[in-house]
Amino acid sequence: MNIHYQTDAWNFMASQPDGFCDVIISDPPYDADVNMDELRRICKGHIVLFCDPRNRFFVPDEVAIWKKPESSKNTTRHLSCFFEEILIERHGNTYNHDLEPINYSGIYYDALLEKRVHPHQKPLTLMERLVRIYSNPGNLIYDPFAGSGSTLIAAEKHGRRAIGTELEPS
To answer: Which of 126, 41, 50, 55 lies closest to 91, judged by CA?
Structure first.
């Protein structure tokens, strides 16, 4: 696992060759401008991005749903939003069918079981599921917005290589 702290994702990507990674799995900041052309340039395989359902970054091939545990922190001056979309843009044939059928429902209820170290941390079980479905052992997974590193941990746990970039060192 290789994490580049205090590194701007877009600057890092600009320095990488075409097709440098096999898969991108990430949770970009929801107010960010996501340059899909750049993600497509550096990635040979699938691109899997979390997003607020009210602000999709692109038109995906598929959409999965992560139903978050209900919490008052999900409520603002508007109706609560207790789910996030997982946008999937498919490139290539990788789609592993060797998991339990529940992994392919497209609606996931994973809860954060580990100690929260990042405000937008995703459950490790959810990230493991995505890693196992959309990549193969030995693949290089890139997470441009690594946050707490859940994607990278899941990748390493399941025999994938992983690189992440993150602005915040904590």
So the answer is: 41
